[in-house]
Amino acid sequence: MSHHTSSPTHAATATAVPIVPPRQAREKVLIVAHADCWIEAFAEHHVDVRLETMPYGCGSVEGELMAEEWFERQLSRPFRNIFCPGLRTTLGKPLSALPSDIAKREYDLALLRGIQQATKEGTR
Q1: Are 45 and 39 spatial neighbours (Cβ–Cβ below 8 Å)?
Q2: What is the DSSP secondary structure assignment for residue 85, as one 8-state letter?
């Protein structure tokens, strides 16, 4: 018959393994800002998305704070609860996409395809 006893010294040296919760799948939301100022949001149907306009704060710190306070007060509670810096996932300014930008990208892609094709032919 075997007895297993644990000494205080043995218990003190044991390391606890932290329990790590499984990583949750992240919902995807795509916001598209068009050149004519239209904004589209794309997400699965179970995701609530709301587009709002922050009032202009007249370029002063005080004005910006007043605009943010007003904005926050007018939001419905579910959206007010997520309107905080710690929950902001993205910050940026839409880049312009002029026809010349698109033409340059198409030219660059055609050039890369040509180089890739020439490389393939050169290795045969």
Answers
A1: no
A2: G
Instruction: Examine the domain organization and report whether 58 and 104 are in the same domain.
Output: no
Nearest to 55 by CA among 43, 42, 67: 67
Nearest to 90 by CA among 26, 45, 38: 26
For residue 73, give the 3-state DSSP assignment: helix
**The model's pTM:** 0.52
Cβ pair 98, 85 in contact under 8 A: no
Cα separation of 109 and 103, whole Å?
Answer: 10
pLDDT tens per residue across span 44-87: 999 999 999 899 888 899 999 999 999 999 999 999 999 988 88
Q: What is the pLDDT of residues 5-46, one digit of tens each?
A: 544 455 555 567 778 778 778 889 999 888 788 899 999 999
Asked, for residue 60, whether it belongs to a domain, the answer is yes
By residue range, what is the domain housing residue 124? 94-124
